[in-house]
Design goal:
The protein is an alpha+beta fold. About 15% of the residues lie in helices and about 25% in strands. The chain is built from 2 helices and 8 strands; from the N terminus they run αββββββββα. The strands form 2 sheets. The protein has a 5-stranded mixed barrel with strand order 1-2-3-5-4. Strands 6-7-8 form a 3-stranded antiparallel beta sheet, with no helix packed on it. The protein is rod-shaped.
Length: about 190
């Protein structure tokens, strides 16, 4: 029986070391596939390649947790998959909901009622597109500003100018009445 245990021990050890919980220590984000240095067992530091889903990428903070896989049972051939960070993870999502988030509070949340984008006090900027098409009503709680010309008028200022403007002539020689159709703010 002892002989059998001795024969199986190396194989058993390789199987046990195939997957491990990993703590991110360093990230090299300059390479085609992200390089990561992780701590596995206490004091065991390994370099590995981090695989991410196509079209999504992130650079986790030191201390984030992941799964380290030892290819062919060798810790020298490691890859890291599924990195998460309990310090920043969104909680209490409803079944089926999805969110994209970061450590600053930026969030795109696909809720059961609709899509919520939170800028965490930072601008949300759409660039390098010839057109932005919105097939819905637009509601704004702040000013809408036209930056297409030097006037830089807000929608409120344009509305006021339009609603109260007159022209210098009418049949009696005085100014015209303001427009009968007013631009209204809802």
């Amino acid at each position: 029986m002892n002989t059998m245990r001795k024969l199986i021990a190396p194989l058993s050890r390789r199987i046990r070391l195939t997957a491990a919980k990993a703590f991110v220590a360093l990230i090299n984000d300059a390479t085609a596939l992200q390089g990561v240095q992780v701590e596995l067992l206490e004091g065991e530091v390994r370099d590995a390649t981090r695989y991410q889903n196509y079209g999504l990428t992130s650079r986790p903070h030191d201390g984030a947790e992941g799964v380290f896989l030892s290819l062919n049972g060798s810790r020298d051939q490691g890859v890291v998959i599924v990195v998460d960070d309990r310090r920043y993870r969104l909680t209490s999502l409803e079944p089926g909901e999805v969110a994209l988030y970061d450590d600053l509070g930026h969030k795109v949340h696909l809720t059961r009622e609709g899509i919520v984008i939170e800028g965490a006090g930072h601008p949300v900027i759409i660039t390098d597109t010839p057109k932005l098409r919105v097939e819905a009503d637009i509601e704004a709680t702040g000013q809408i500003k036209d930056r297409c010309d030097t006037a830089g008028l807000s929608m409120s200022a344009m509305r006021s100018t339009y609603n109260y403007h007159t022209h210098p002539e009418n049949d009696s020689g005085g100014p015209t009445d303001p427009p009968s159709l007013q631009m209204e703010a809802e």
